[in-house]
Amino acid sequence: MTGYILKPFFDRVEILSDGANYLPDGTVVDIREKVKTSPAVPLAIVGSGSVPVIDVLSDMIFVAAKVTTSVDETLAILAQSLAAIKANGFAGDSPARMAIGAISETRGPTTLFFSTFEDEAAPFELHDRPFGFGQGEYPPPEEMLAAGWSHSAPLVQYGPFLFEYMRARKRHNPAYPDADPIYSIGGHLDLTIVRSDGFEHRRLLTWPDVVGERIDPGRRYRSPR
């Protein structure tokens, strides 16, 4: 599944995500910006798994944000909606995991996630992650420190190193645990910053992956112009 990291700071939430959508065997079908931002409130979404499910649920969240113009009320509606979806049944062959970074009116910078499949956390429930949330494989602590990681460091400081590390390793897709591991980080690496007054987007890396082919970590990345 998609690699991403959400990290809250005192005045913002930072999000890193790659850009490749692919089949369960790792064949790239699309390369796009995966982080979606609300035009109504300071809230951003990133998902992994079934693209149609991610798009439908993102649209539902953004409609709630437009109607309420409140992060807190949007999250309350989302929690209720997830419970209703679970009660009414959901197609188990379309799994997705979605994470949210937002500036809450009462709590400030906030990160949460939910899944539509049996995961390490209960599905169809909104799970608070006050210290951030990530999906992917992390290098040993000493390598993270050497790359610039610290609790207060911005993601741009060590994010490219971390995603290059993940790109070079095959991983199991948690939504398809019986499938063979695949290379699953590709397309590009984007940084999105959520602030109370808007969003900032930066492209940190671009990899030469090809739609219709599997991700090849042997290809070197191109720095953005």
Q: Could you explain the architecture of this structure?
A:
The chain is of the alpha+beta class and 225 residues long. The chain contains four helices and twelve strands, in the order E-E-E-E-E-E-H-H-E-E-E-E-H-H-E-E. It has a five-stranded antiparallel sheet with strand order 10-1-2-11-12, covered by helices on one side. A five-stranded antiparallel sheet has the order 5-6-7-8-9, with helices on one face. Helix 1 crosses helix 2 (71-88). The chain starts with a strand and ends in a 19-residue tail after the last strand. The mean pLDDT is 91.
Oligomer kind = single chain
Number of helices: 4
Roughly what fraction of the amino acids lie in strands?
25-35%
Residues in helix, %: 10-25%
Structural class based on helices, strands and sheet pairing? alpha+beta
Shape: globular
Biggest sheet layout: 5 strands, antiparallel
The overall strand count is 12
Order of helices and strands: EEEEEEHHEEEEHHEE
Rg from C-alpha positions?
17 Å
What value does the average pLDDT take?
Answer: 91
Contiguous uncertain segments of 5+ residues: none
- Order of strands across the biggest sheet? 10-1-2-11-12
Ends apart, CA distance between termini: 28 Å
